[in-house]
Specification:
The chain is an alpha+beta fold and about 600 residues long. It is built from 8 helices and 30 strands. The protein has helices at about 1-25, 30-45, 130-145, 310-320, 410-420, 440-445, 465-480, 580-605; strands at about 45-50, 55, 60-70, 80-90, 100-110, 110-115, 155, 160-170, 175-185, 190, 195-205, 210-220, 225-240, 245-260, 265-275, 275-285, 295-305, 340-355, 355-370, 370-380, 385-395, 400-410, 425-440, 450-465, 490-505, 510-515, 520-530, 535-545, 565-570, 575-580. The chain has a 30-stranded mixed beta sheet that branches. The longest helix has 24 residues, at about 1-25. The chain is elongated, with a radius of gyration of 39 Å.
Length: about 600
């Protein structure tokens, strides 16, 4: 027993002697030259440690150092790539023997990173990546090998990262970006317990500035496999000339769970508000496979995209001509569609864009293997409904697409006025179209579109022309009344139904069977509408089927049954209507000749 007693006393004495030597005699500053020389040898950079190194060995293992700088390569504008004001770290020594980690404090203050890219392509990282890359592979293997390990206890008194700045200067593009982390703090932290987390940062970019701050609760599971962030409230303020009204404020509240062992991420967006747009939803990500999978659900309130643009700019944009440009349009790169699988469900209360008003949007989109399949896109639209489905194949260099769209019971006049400022057609419209094409370049979208469909408009009118009035005036002038047409009448032609089919190819909509019926006239024929230059070319025939005196007329008109050519030309925004009076005269003379012939036959009893 005495032997064991003196044995442990001896061991304790050796430990105390070692502690005294390390703390009182050993000076870590003696190794500063070796550290500086090692960095110089490995990187070619100059490391400077301005303040003395101070450390403790027992009962806590701690270190404090400051005024650290690492130089940029020769020839760079900023002499230092990295600068640190102060680093403080203290770890309790004895608990480490029991796989327990107690950190009383971990502070980093005044970290500044200066990254430069010169005009010749040289960067601040040149010379730092060679051996580091090899080390990364080892680190990844080690990290993989240690998956599933756990600590008996982890206790951190607090972490504070303050006054951090990252500056990125690109001399080739003459841009400068500044990211400043004012503070990132974590309160008392223990495994399996929530700890308060808080940050405040700002960013200055060439065209905008960002100020962001947030706080929430952070928890890491005892087995280190699950990270949970609860009640994370973030507030962002962005300003810049390119933003709507020069600024944008966005606030969100979210919770997040990351399962490292299952390689999944689950996010719940409790609330989001930006530009008077409110939303909530969820996001589930499985990132353990070669192609990650994302499932998203989003509920959005009223969205007024027009309100995001200044009114004067909106008016100017509508009246301005498209600028001439000699640059050739390039197909969008959709290869990123192969890198993720999506399943998205979005519901929007209302959307207003380009003055187009819609409600109750439902969108269901699935994307897999580079093909996006929009299974449903539906909304309430001007008293009716729109339902559509579409696919976009982004696997090839030039994307291909196909779609199917149906409009039912839509107020076509209100739709055309709000969408294109065209007041030409009125009535309740039903519309079906199926199409396909390739290329997403705007001009090619019109040229390469191949589609066909049908339309039906009930109880409507053609605005800008009064066909019965034109026929009445022509009839009066043929009868010698040259004053016909002096009066003013409403420029509108009512109809009970308008039907037809159409085919779209090479930017031209062909309508071979337009048929319009009303109590007064019938209008039939064919024509084209060019969706590239908006030109209209319709050759129609109109015939009188009722009394031109009005809906209540009970006397058959003298022009009854005569077909009169009617032409529509001009553009969609400024259509022109013309009645072929020469053909009307020929028809009238032919009709009068036939009447005279019949009269003579009756008078002389025939031949």
């Amino acid at each position: 027993m005495k032997f064991l007693k003196w044995f442990f006393i001896s061991i304790l004495g050796l430990v105390l002697a070692l502690v005294l030597y390390v703390t009182l005699i050993f000076d870590p500053n003696d190794f500063k030259p070796q550290i500086i020389d090692l960095v110089k040898k490995e990187t070619g950079r100059e490391l400077a440690i301005g303040s003395d190194l101070s450390w403790t060995f027992f009962p806590s293992l701690g270190i404090k150092l400051g005024q650290i700088t690492l130089s940029n390569p020769d020839g760079f504008q900023n002499p230092s790539m990295l600068a640190v004001n102060q680093v403080v770290a203290e770890v309790a020594l004895m608990p480490l023997l029991k796989k327990e980690v107690e950190i009383s404090q971990l502070n980093l203050d005044g970290l500044t990173l200066m990254f430069e890219t010169q005009k010749n392509g040289r960067t601040s990282f040149d010379g730092l990546t060679g051996k580091a890359g090899k080390k990364d592979n080892t680190d990844k293997s080690a990290a993989k090998a240690t998956t599933g390990t756990s600590l008996a206890r982890l206790d951190i008194g607090g972490i504070a990262i303050t006054n951090t700045k990252i500056i990125n200067i690109d001399h080739a593009n003459q841009t400068e970006q500044v990211f400043a982390l004012k503070e990132l703090t974590l309160g008392r932290f223990q495994l399996g317990e929530f700890a308060p987390l808080k940050y405040e940062l700002s960013a200055t970019l060439p065209d905008m500035t960002l100020v962001s701050q947030g706080e929430g609760q952070l928890k890491v599971a005892q087995d280190l496999n699950t990270i949970t962030i609860n009640d994370f409230a973030v507030s962002n303020q962005v300003t810049g000339a390119g933003l709507p009204h020069g600024k944008l404020k966005a606030d969100l509240n979210t919770s997040l769970v990351i399962a490292l062992d299952k390689q999944t991420l689950n996010l719940v967006l409790s609330s989001f508000n930006a530009a008077n747009i409110n939303a909530s939803g969820s996001l589930d990500v499985a990132y353990g496979h070669k192609v990650p999978s994302v499932v998203a659900k989003l509920e959005v309130g009223d969205v007024d995209l027009d309100a995001l643009l200044p009114k004067d700019e909106t008016k100017q944009a509508k009246g301005a001509k498209a600028p001439n440009t000699s640059s050739k349009a390039v197909e969008p790169d959709l290869t990123a569609m192969k890198s993720v699988n999506l399943d998205v469900d979005v519901r929007v209360k209302s959307v207003k864009v380009a003055n187009l008003k819609t409600q109750n949007w439902v969108m269901q989109l699935v994307m897999q293997g580079g093909v996006a399949d929009m299974k449903q896109l539906s909304a309430d639209l001007y008293g009716g409904k729109v339902n559509a489905s579409a696919t976009v194949d982004g696997r090839n260099k030039v994307a291909q697409y196909q779609f199917n769209e149906r409009l039912t019971g839509v107020d076509i006049r209100a739709l055309l006025i709000d969408l294109a400022e065209v007041d030409m057609l009125d009535g309740k419209a039903n519309f079906n179209v199926t199409g396909k094409g390739k290329s997403l370049i705007p001009d090619n979208l019109k040229k390469n579109l191949i589609a066909n469909g049908k339309f039906e408009i009930a109880d409507g009118a053609i605005h800008g022309v009064n066909i019965p009035q034109m026929i009445r005036e022509a009839k009066a002038k043929l009868g010698g009344d040259l004053s016909a047409g002096a009066g003013s009448t409403e420029q509108k032609t009512d109809f009970t139904s308008m039907t037809g089919s159409f085919y779209i190819a090479k930017g031209v909509v062909s309508n071979p069977d337009l048929d319009m019926a009303s109590p007064l006239i019938r209008l039939k024929g064919a024509g084209t509408a060019n969706i590239i230059n908006e030109a209209l070319d319709y050759k129609l025939t109109t015939s009188v089927v009722g009394s031109l005196e009005g809906q209540g007329g009970d006397k058959r008109d003298s022009l009854y049954g005569i077909e009169i050519p009617f032409v529509i030309s001009g553009t969609m925004s400024e259509p022109k209507f013309a009645l072929d009076t020469k053909a009307l005269l020929d028809s009238k003379l032919k009709d009068e000749t036939n009447k005279l012939k019949d009269s003579l036959l009756k008078k002389f009893g025939g031949f």
